[in-house]
Amino acid sequence: MPIIWIGFAIFVALLLFFDLFVLNAKDHVPRTREALGQTALWMTIGIGFCGFIYLAYSNGWVDSDLPPHTAMINYLTGYLVELSLSMDNVFVIAVIFGYFQVPGKYQHRVLFWGILGAVFFRLAMILAGVYLLDQFDWMFYVFGILLLFSAYKMVGKGEEVHPSENPVIKFVKRLVPVTHDYHGHDFWIRQAGKIHATPLFVALVMVETTDVIFAIDSIPAILGITTDSFLVFSSNILAVLGLRALYFVLSSMIDKFGLLKYSLALILTFVGVKLMLHEVWHPEEWLSLVVIFVTLAGGVVLSLMSKPPAEPHPHDPTKIEQPTEVPDI
């Protein structure tokens, strides 16, 4: 494995250590100011990584023919795409936490371990995606159609999320008994000499599988920007690392961004068309960045300017301190 991949893995491990044992050493519900500060920190790290990308591609640290400024633009575009698509993931996570009545002070722990697992899943999916695009030209059309279908589903009526009907829960129950109550922040406990999973572990599995499902959309979207595996992986992972703080910022304001899904659908459509026309259309790298940024910013601004919905989101899952009733799982 090239040394730059090892170095990036160490860098991510240090960021995860800093997040779990420094920023969030104690179980607590981050206040809005704290969550905003952490979100700004993660975004600064993610955007600031552009400088490293420029140096790496200028000095040949990466086995690539991309000019450094092109690599930097592709990284930033991929980062922005993943960050924007993560906002849609926030809604599903809020539904999962609300359903399982996960106490607010334990939600960060679930998100941390869920995203840690996502790092390994996404690495495998990215390497597989890059390989398929390198080996089979028709995969560009497959990924393009997948993104167009995802865009259609996003603006359509869609399906409500029903955690109680998810086969993942049934699968977990077949493997290990699950307690009916929470036991602090523990995922596993021993009762009557047997290992039991807690509802917190089931919520973790749900968050993990949800991220994998969302990666089916987000990874092809970034592959539509560049097929450089290091750019795809680094932009994807650094955006995902900020998802925890972003969740605590957006979870209580989901209904204020009602028009954002149309912006995300337009972004997926743009990248999907770009993939399908890859043989005849080669837009400048900066054009993709501008289109995605303007589309995302427009969705945010128009959402904030529009009237609030008649029926607001039923609750803010981050405000759950003690579960009133853990669902029967």
Q: Could you characterize the architecture of this molecule?
A:
This protein is mostly helical and 329 residues long. It is 68% helix and 2% strand. It contains eleven helices and two strands, in the order H-H-H-H-H-H-E-E-H-H-H-H-H. The chain has helices at residues 3-23, 32-58, 68-100, 104-135, 139-155, 167-175, 199-223, 229-241, 243-250, 260-276, 285-305, and strands spanning 188-191, 194-197. A two-stranded antiparallel ribbon has the order 1-2. The longest helix is centred in the N-terminal third of the chain and has 33 residues, at 68-100. It is globular. It starts with a helix and ends in a 24-residue tail after the last helix. The mean pLDDT is 84.
Strand content: under 5%
Largest sheet: 2 strands, antiparallel
Average pLDDT reading: 84
How many DSSP-defined strands?
2
How large, in whole angstroms, is the Cα Rg?
A: 20 Å
Assign a percent range to the helix content.
55-70%
Backbone structural class = mainly alpha
Distance between the termini: 43 Å
Instruction: List the secondary-structure elements in sequence, H or E.
Output: HHHHHHEEHHHHH
Number of helices: 11
Low-confidence stretches: none
Shape: globular
- The largest beta-sheet arranges its strands as 1-2
